[in-house]
Amino acid sequence: MSASTGLVVAAHGRHCVVETPDGKRRICHPRGKKSLAVVGDQVLWQSARHGDGEGTVEQVLERRNLLYRQDDVRSKSFAANLDQVLILLAAEPVFSEGLLARALIASEAAGVTPLIALNKSDLVTPFATAWERLWTYRHMGGDGTGAHHYRVLPLSLTQSGAVDRKALLALLTGKTTLVLGPSGAGKSTLVNLLVPGAAAQTGEISQALGSGKHTTTTTTLYWLDGERRSALIDSPGFQSFGLNHIAATDLARLMPDMALHLGGCRFYNCTHLHEPGCAVLSQVAEGRTPGLISPLRHRIYRELFAELGTRPY
Predict the structure, then answer these.
(1) What tens digit of pLDDT does each residue of 247-275 get?
(2) Closest to 184 measured CA to CA, from 238, 130, 232, 234
């Protein structure tokens, strides 16, 4: 029996849902004990021999990229073959800038374009405070062109958010986008706003995969158009984001505000922590000038550098 190609559109535990080019879906299991397929993967699969309508994943085809996090215990893959990742934050509950920095670094390392969206603009005072905290991310370009800044979007994700829906769809059209964010940021509301009937789809997939009440542990791909060119991938909320797969010496180039100044240090192996003649340290200062590195961003860098196992000599 020859293998067919398909797209992984949902995953829970060792099981996944594979969609065929004609739009049909079926539950598939890995060949062997370990599941290597993640949502967004193109795979080769075969129908199961016992004829129950299920199948097995025979091979994961080559990926363009893979976004994942890794701590001391395990690695957690989010999705593969992405065009962009939408990092969703909220004015309330207060978001962690350290967690945001980790997600951005992982996106940069995977070669995936990150977008930042701040939800709950209807909460005027908390939103203004949160928006101000994101000033650095909106103005990282040192030359005034914004070449190194992150795109930051203000949102009010309510069921009547027609304006936000139109603006978001314009950014998502023709792309595969992963939605990341901490619990409580509004990811479910975002998905339901962009994909009418998403809750029903999630219920069907959860029932098929046997995930029951653990729906939040299921990663799911939703099509935004009938042509299946624009996809939104919903992932479980997270409260931690390990970066053990990234070398401490790579951190600076993955942080655009620091990368802007690399190459100007006196020492070729500068850690940007304490060395004289460090071009990065010379730009660490309080202020609202594009190109400067905020003390908080450099503190995040120092903490990550220590965490990832390399110490200053």
Answers:
(1) 999 999 999 999 999 999 999 999 999 99
(2) 238
Nearest to 116 by CA among 132, 103, 128: 103
**223: closest CA among 235, 232, 213?**
232
The 10 Å Cβ neighbour count of residue 32 is 10
Nearest of 313, 310, 301 to residue 267 by alpha carbon: 313
Return the H-helix or E-strand segment holding 178: strand 176-180
Strand partners, 77: 68
> Tokens 């992405």, residue?
82
Q: How many contiguous H segments (helices) and E segments (strands) does the chain have?
A: 8, 13
What is the rounded CA–CA span in Å between residue 13 and residue 20?
21
Query: Residues near 204 by Cβ (< 8 Å), separated by ≥ 6?
Result: none
- Contact in structure between 179 and 88 (CB atoms under 8 Å): yes
Of 42, 45, 52, 50, the closest CA to residue 31 belongs to 45
pTM above 0.85, yes or no: yes
For residue 2, pLDDT beyond 80: no
Give Rg (Cα) of the chain: 21
Q: Pick 225 or 148 by higher pLDDT.
A: 225
Q: Cα-flanking dihedrals φ and ψ of residue 266, to 5°?
A: -65, -40
Residue 32 φ/ψ region, left for φ over 0, alpha for ψ in the -120 to 50 degree band, beta for the rest: left
Distance CA 67, CA 286 (A): 32
Rounded Cα gap, residues 295 and 136, in angstroms: 11
Q: How far apart are CA 105 and CA 117, in angstroms?
A: 16
Rounded Cα gap, residues 153 and 134, in angstroms = 10
3-state secondary structure of 74: coil
Least confident of 110-114, 160-164, 182-186, 229-233: 160-164
